[in-house]
């Protein structure tokens, strides 16, 4: 089988190895275990490799480079419009050679791929929609257009569209899917937490506005007025200096700790002993940090966005909050009063997450490739 990946992810070449954003590559490596030939059509970025990137395990990948496109300014939009015909031709030629077409959505390149795949109704296809599939969410026009094409069974034939969460009134080609981080070998009985003494909160993610780390800090700041609590934030981003300043201005150095980016192994050890993960994001696709926290019995506290309510079983496996300091704090304080319920919630969270291992994920991939 010749497997074609159409992606907007920036790729880098170093010798015979091809690199891209690590979580994406880690997932794609599982797909590539079960195909004969691989072609990747994506933009190339000629910079040094960072610790956020990793190489595909295969070194026989055909890398078909295309220009990147963006519409964030008038000049960029004009340049992108000029590039589009060349990109469309490249995608069309690659699709013609492929046995299976795999789209990585949403994104500008994926949108072009969505259009081209219409002309190949007999080829088997998959589209991984890594964004928010919630039909009622506010999204950019290009995202809505991709969702419209992918869910239209007249335009998109012989395709499975993999989305996060189970949504009502979807076309038959839409399949609820997931992403895995841990192996069956990592499954352990979570440590029983003590919710009577100091409560340990953890935030894992980029320090950017979309992840709302300042709200996480303010929530724990309010909680620790009545309950001994600490918050550790793992991740880096453009808000780091602003957060450090807020911590200093409000004398929170003993309560709030910025830990920076850490390895998967460090995060794993942190999750084994933390009580709550707090992620008051404004938008998510599959919130990896939430699923990983649940794996170790950490109770997630998250906003009601995307597939989060589905993951948390609408409050049975975690605490759903509004992105408002007062109501969020009130919801958390109410839960802290019921220790038995917290223990049950932790148990339900880990049991659910243990179903989504790398092995289970790979089995589902094989089914899709053999459709």
Automatic annotation (TrEMBL):
Its name, as the record gives it, is Glycosyl transferase
Q: What keywords appear on the UniProt entry? A: Transferase
Q: Which InterPro entries match?
A: Glyco_trans_1
The organism's place on the tree of life at top rank: Bacteria
Q: What Gene Ontology terms describe what this protein does at the molecular function level?
A: glycosyltransferase activity
Q: Where is the Glycosyl transferase family domain?
A: 196-350
Q: Name one Pfam family in it.
A: Glycos_transf_1
Gene3D superfamilies, sorted: Glycogen Phosphorylase B (3.40.50.2000)
Q: Does the keyword DNA repair apply?
A: no
